[in-house]
Amino acid sequence: MHPSINVVTDSGYQGLQKIHAKTQMPKKRSKKSPLTAEDKANNRQLSRERVLNENVIGNLKRFKIIADRYRNRRKRFFLRFNLIAGIYNLELVQ
Fold first, then answer.
1. Which residue range is the domain that position 41 belongs to?
2. In a domain? residue 69
3. 3-class secondary-structure state, position 66
4. CA 40 to CA 32: how far, in whole Å?
5. Measured distance CA(28)–CA(25) in Å, rounded
6. What is the pLDDT of residue 41?
7. Alpha carbon 41 to chain centroid distance?
8. Is residue 86 in a domain?
9. pTM, rounded to two decimals
10. Residue 14 to residue 90: CA distance in whole angstroms
């Protein structure tokens, strides 16, 4: 990833903050240190940003191009992926 890109992830990518400086991740609570109201608001804001991308990825998985192993020619993967993305965008407009 390019150093200037802001990355918003879920808490499953915990080691990424050590590698990439501009990573935003929700704060986790523990028994000894519960979340403050500010931390909860920050986590909610990160979730709002992430949910849009997660919904698009979920809809693209319907076409099985990113859900399963791609077994066709690698040269045509990007063509097919762009066609599927175009179909998804067409559904949004209608």
1. 7-28+35-93
2. yes
3. coil
4. 16
5. 9
6. 96
7. 20
8. yes
9. 0.67
10. 36
